[in-house]
Amino acid sequence: MKKIALFPGSFDPFTNGHYDIVNRGLLIFDQIIIAIGHNTTKKRYFEVAKIASELKKVFAHKPQISVTTYEELTTDVAKKHNATFLLRGLRNSTDFEYEKSIDQINKDLYPELETVFLMTKPENMAISSTIVRELHKFGADITKYVPISFT
Ligand code: ADP
User: Fold this and answer.
1) pLDDT-based confidence at 75, cuts 50/70/90?
2) How many CB atoms lie within 10 A of CB 26?
3) Which of 57, 93, 95, 131 is 20 to 30 A from 120 via CA?
């Protein structure tokens, strides 16, 4: 059976940390669906459509990776795509505590779904979408932290 993983996140924006998790995820999974979550009541900084179209370009040479957007429960999106794994990244104990709670709720909603966590690489440890947004807002160059173009 094909191992299909959903990699869900806000990806506002998608950073080199996320990029590395997806690429290393390919060592484990046959197919990875990057799912950009958005909530119409919550304001984003980077448009979902822009992130999605840039990611499609970045991963165009890797047919095992696809990109989708969603506005529903992550577990429902996983079911819809026949994904039985969630892929998530961990940087520190704050991430761990947060991920632990989400995993417990997800287990209630979809018991067959297993979450696989990959530790970030040291060089990506300090990269967060929040910091990248701040840098961009104040006109700093973010190209070093993201795999996609924002021009
Ligand atoms: P969410 O809004 O669901 O927290 P994010 O877009 O912030 O989504 O992150 C998606 C996933 O990527 C989460 O599992 C998060 O812990 C992980 N992540 C974020 N930044 C990094 C990084 N620099 N290295 C590895 N994983 C990361």
Assistant:
1) very high
2) 15
3) 57
